[in-house]
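Comment on the following before class.
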Amino acid sequence: MLLEIVSPEGHLFKGEVTSVTVPGVNGEFQMLNHHANIVSILAAGDIKVEVSDFKSNNSFGGKFVKSDKDQKFLLSVNSGTLEMKDNKVIILVD
């Protein structure tokens, strides 16, 4: 699925991913390929991106931390909104 993460500073990430785990206001949840359409508000926490070949926008790559346990990259956020539709996830964060 295609993931796009955007902040007021610019595009933080855009690319194909295996899964995305986000801190929803009612708890953490994960989206996999062909997940049902969803719109959600995000709470403070980590967005976990599972991707085989991580390529962040060079100027924002330092915002992501590689997990020691697996092939996930973590991005800490204060809040945000998410939309998944037609196998594309767009996350707006601050």
In short: Residues 37 and 85 are 5 Å apart (CA to CA).
